[in-house]
Structures are given as structure tokens and as C-alpha cells.
Amino acid sequence: MNPFPYSDDNKRYHSYSYYLKHKYGCKVARVPLNGGFTCPNRDGTLSYGGCLFCSEDGSGEQIVFPEKSLEIQFNAGIQKLSKWKDAKYLAYLQSFSGTYANISKLKSIYNKCLSLPNVCGLVIATRADCINPEICDLLAEFAQKTDITIELGLQTVHDKTNKLMNRCEYFSDFEKAVNLLNSVNIPVWTHLLNGLPYETHEMMLESAKVIGQMKISGVKIHTLYFLKDTSFAKNYAHFALDKDEYIDIVCNQLEVLPNNIVIGRLTGDAPRDKLLAPLWTSRKREVLNCIDKELLKRNSFQGKFTKL
User: Fold this and answer.
1) pTM > 0.90
2) Tally of domains in the chain
3) Do the beta carbons of residue 269 and residue 284 sit within 8 Å?
4) Are 64 and 76 in contact (CB under 8 A)?
5) Residue 55: inside a domain
6) What is the dihedral of CA 99, 103, 107, 109, to 10 degrees?
7) β-pair type (226-227, 275-277)
8) ∠48-54-60 over CA atoms, to 5°?
9) 7 is a domain residue
10) Domain span including residue 104
């Protein structure tokens, strides 16, 4: 018998599908969009080139026709979901930093997203240092009429790693942004990236423990992957985690994350034609099944070692 309260199936963690089903009562899908943003770590404000692990398009999920208008991108995205009938959608501004622009431009882009058919909310990925009181006031204004969620790409709580990865952003920036967003009741999600160079299993677990003690609504957990013909892969691919390592780390992290935190994902999606390592990440279903089996083997579940 599954002891986990937030589950309709065998999942022993608070899955995103469970969250969406119980929040909206129907099929809901995120449609990734490119709003034409850049990043202070790319345009020279802080640095050039971005974080060492960042992809060229500043996103993880594939965006269809990223150079086209939001409408064209959205229509192409939902075409991929054509088998879903009577679905609703979350417009997901995923590429680069979706709060990095002046207020007038942000209003225009957010309004365009919300005018798309059957959109029931807006998810905005951004950096913690691209959140300020003025941005929070704007988000609170939009939250009066729709669901707004902010995703902050923390990756790790360890500033030594942040410096190595050319993040030009530190854990104190994340703490400040979370506090600002919490002050206007905007839900905050974040990302944890396992397998960063020189991080031990204990360091990765510590990142999850720290996040679990903050007012965070959702977490996405990924492994670091390395793409062919990149200097990053050339220098760091030997740090790639093997599958068993990753599964063990993820299960340990789930055990210290409170069970009310939604788990947005437990593995990433690298482009297969470019993936150098770890190759096992291309077998997403297999990885998820192994996580389920490991939690069952442990007789464990998300939040086992936490107290709400």
C-alpha cells in the first residue's frame, strides 16, 4: 500500500500531474515559449556567454519555432498535444530570464501569453537577480486575474560551485528573491541540478535540505548533461553521474523535501543527437521507473525525514 498522501497511483512523491489534476480538474499542459528575453549573464551586464551549463536557447524543453511569434509558437506547441481533448494550457516563458525587461515590455508579453486560447496561467522562468520590488508589484497585479508562478534556476546552494559555473549569482540572491515573491504571495518553484563539477553526494543532499526549509511551492530535479562539441563537455564530462548514483541521490533528496512541495520533474531532456553524457538520461521512462522501484524498496517516500 502506498503510504504517500499526495498520490492517485504508485508515485511516492508529489508529482506534477497529481498537482495539476487536483488543481484544475482536467488535463493541463505547459507550452514552452520564447518571449525574446536575454539574460544579464549574457548581455554583458554581469558577464557574457551565460552559465557554463546553459544551452544556446536558454531552455531545457524544446520550443517549436522559437524565432516566431508567441502565437505561432503556442499553436505549434499545442499541435504536439493534439491527442489531448478539452485541455487547458499554462503559457511557459522558459527561455532565458522572463522578468529581465522594462515593465512596459513585460506587461505586453505577459498579456499576449494570457490572450492565447485556453491558457489558464502563466509560468515564468527567470534568475533570482532579475526579481525586484517593482517586478513583484507587476506579478501581483497579474496574479489578480490568473495563476502566476515564478521558476528560479537555483541549481545549487553552494556558492563555490556557482562561481565555478560562471553563474554570477549567489544563494543570497535566491533568498532575497524568494522573500520578495513570498511577500506578494507569488508561488516560487526552483531547480536543483545534480552532478555539478566537484559536488559530492552530501553537497547535493544539502541543497535539497536547504530548499526544503524555505517557502517553496515546487522543485524540478535534473542531472547535468554534456553536449557534443562544447568546451564545457570537453572539460567536465568526466563528472557525469551514472544512473544508479543519480537514482540514489534523487531518492535521498525526495526524503528530505516536505511532501507539500510539488515535484515538477525528476530527470531532464537533452537533445539526443547532441548528448555526449550521461547517455542513460535519454531513457526517461526507465529512470522514472527505477526511482519508483527504489522508493518502494526502501519503503520510503517524499518527506519521510521532514516535519511540516
Assistant:
1) yes
2) 1
3) yes
4) yes
5) yes
6) -50
7) antiparallel
8) 145
9) no
10) 16-298
